[in-house]
Design brief:
This protein has about 575 residues and is an alpha/beta fold. It has three domains: about 300 residues, ABC transporter transmembrane region fold; about 160 residues, Rossmann fold (3-Layer(aba) Sandwich); about 70 residues, 3-Layer(aba) Sandwich (Rossmann fold), CATH 3.40.50. It contains 19 helices and ten strands. Strands 6-7-8-3-9-10 form a six-stranded mixed sheet, with helices on both faces. A four-stranded antiparallel sheet has the order 2-1-4-5, with helices on one face. Helix 1 runs antiparallel to helix 2. It is elongated and about 125 Å long.
Length: about 575
């Protein structure tokens, strides 16, 4: 459809100069011999009017179709990029800034949309118009047609060199812009930290320096571009004026009629648009290539997960977990976990204990299938993780995070997250079990109250209880508690612990804990040290045995004794 309109427009653009030639010749004949026809003159003037109206209509329709395609393409690319993000391995997110990723998405899609718009509105019209214009020139004045055709390769060559230089610097500008935007988003996310440490001037200076470098590159980029553009335009105008002089001299000598003179001048003037269009398109190509470079680098990354495949409805009701000689290490560095062998039984409550950096969180990440073992096997009720999709594994798991992983939407949406057909009575029941119902009902809009980014409008204990309510709604047979009460005051901890007791019933529970007061009733403690399980047993057994657990327990007990002694409570 677009091609048809473009072809029709290109043809119509040649009809106007030809019609003007006939009109001028008719007027010349009338002036010279008196044999001109006013009726023929009116007819050709009417033709010009009709052609101009048709051109306006076709151009508007063509541009509307181009906009239609560009908008659909923008939607498709956004969805494709977003879908790709969901399939990337966790290690990608560990090393990239979210602000940078969003900036790459926005810039890439805008540049591609602009290029598609330019392609539909300029590339094909410019090519066809050039072809027809030079063809008509060759017919009436072959040597002028040859001169006009010779302009194109020179003009395009200079344009290509100019846009290449522009693109090289554009990539550098984009890298700086990504760094700046990423930092701004980080600062906004950590605005309390920034204000508390009075680092606003430092952060402002950091971003200001990035954009100072950005402007320096842009200044060089712009200078080179405009120098080359001046050379290109100046050479074109000199060539065009030289052809004009030759045409005027030819007309003066009687080689061309006045109508042919007007026709040739019109056609030569029409060459400006396709030449400028080709230059513009080359710039758009280079800009799109530079601006979408990071976008396509993400698209080309190897996916580690499938996007939302169907999860089997039939699941093991009370699953167990097994680690068989599991070793894990990141791309660089020593192994974080070494030959781990363990079995987590049905309805068992397990605590993971160890020094910071011992490998507890890495073990949890392997259970969540955020990473795959470097060697060894993980099994869920005797079924290998390697034979299960990521979604299938995670359908067995609920996680209450140490950090408050909440969206800025409503209480209702956060509690029912991932459950499209959740009923209000089930949401209310989950809130009550999580000791969250009372404070939710005191919010201005109750279940529909918006809680702010990452739940900023709520206290730490309230946010944790919403996470627990969400886990209750999910009702997964394996529950992971990642330091769920580590940042709470004693009263909030009591409310959260009571809520956790409701959540932990009839499940396999895995707890990461530093505060041993919260794990005195677990079935078993696994002690992890330097990536290996060095001990296991009940809290009472480990407290009596020399090792990492008793050492850490002693530090906590002694710390509590000092506190009590200070206030003469013991």
């Amino acid at each position: 459809m677009v091609s048809f309109f473009v072809l029709l427009l290109a043809v119509l653009q040649q009809v106007t100069p030809l019609t003007l030639k006939v009109i001028v010749d008719e007027i010349t004949q009338q002036l010279q011999t008196g044999d001109g026809s006013l009726q023929r003159l009116s007819f050709w003037l009417g033709i010009i009017f009709v052609i101009n109206v048709l051109s306006i209509i076709l151009n508007a329709v063509n541009q509307r179709i181009g906009d239609y395609l560009a908008s659909r393409l923008g939607k498709y690319l956004t969805e494709y990029y977003y879908r790709k993000i969901f399939t990337l391995p966790q290690k990608y997110f560990d090393s990239e800034l979210s602000g940078k990723m969003v900036n790459q998405l926005t810039r890439g899609i805008v540049s591609i949309q602009e290029f598609i718009g330019a392609a539909s509105n300029f590339i094909l019209p410019a090519f066809l118009q050039s072809f027809f214009t030079i063809g008509v020139l060759f017919y009436f004045a072959p040597w002028i047609g040859a001169l006009a055709a010779a302009i194109f390769p020179i003009y395009v060559a200079v344009s290509r060199y100019s846009t290449k230089k522009w693109g090289e610097r554009q990539v550098l500008k984009n890298e700086l812009e990504d760094e700046g935007r990423g930092r701004i988003q980080e600062v906004i996310g950590n605005i309390k930290l920034v204000k508390t440490f009075n680092t606003q001037p430092m952060e402002w200076k950091f971003v200001s320096e990035i954009y100072r470098k950005h402007i320096a590159i842009y200044d060089r980029q712009s200078t080179v571009y405009h120098i080359l553009n001046f050379i290109r335009e100046f050479a074109f105008e000199i060539t065009l004026i030289s052809i004009f002089i030759l045409v005027f001299r030819g007309t003066f000598a009687g080689v061309y009629t006045l109508g042919e003179l007007v026709l040739i001048l019109q056609l030569l003037n029409q060459l400006r648009r396709p030449l400028y269009s080709m230059s513009f398109v080359l710039e758009r190509i280079q800009r799109a290539e530079a601006d979408s470079k990071a976008f396509f680098e993400v698209i080309e990354l190897e996916s580690s997960e499938a996007f939302a495949p169907k999860v089997s409805a039939s699941k093991v009701k009370h699953p167990s977990l097994q680690f068989q000689d599991v070793t894990f290490q990141y791309e660089s560095g020593d192994p974080v976990l070494k030959n781990v062998n363990l079995e987590l039984n049905k309805k068992e409550t397990i605590a993971l204990v160890g020094h910071s950096g011992a490998g507890k969180t890495t073990l949890i990440n392997l259970i969540l299938k955020l990473y795959d073992p470097t060697s060894g096997e993980i099994l869920l009720s005797d079924k290998k993780y390697a034979d299960m999709t990521h979604q299938e594994v995670r359908s067995y798991l609920s996680l209450v995070f140490q950090d408050n992983e909440l969206f800025s939407s409503t209480v209702r949406e956060n509690v029912a997250y991932g459950m499209e057909k959740a009923k209000e009575k089930d949401i209310v029941s989950a809130l009550k079990k999580a000791n969250a119902y009372d404070f939710v009902m005191k919010l201005p809009s109750g279940l529909d109250a918006k809680i702010g980014e990452r739940g900023v409008k709520l206290s730490g204990g309230q946010k944790q209880r919403l996470q627990i309510a969400r886990a209750i709604m999910h009702d997964a047979p394996i529950l992971i508690l990642d330091e769920a009460t580590s940042s709470l005051d004693s009263k909030s901890e009591k409310l959260v612990q009571d809520a956790l007791e409701n959540l932990m019933k009839d499940r396999l529970v895995i707890i990461i804990a530093h505060r041993f007061s919260t794990i005195q009733n677990v079935d078993r403690i696994l002690v992890i040290d330097e990536g290996s399980i060095v001990d296991s047993g009940t809290p009472q057994e480990l407290a009596q045995r020399k090792g990492v657990y008793s050492e850490l327990l002693r530090y906590q007990v002694e710390g509590n004794k000092k506190l009590l002694s200070k206030y003469e409570l013991v």
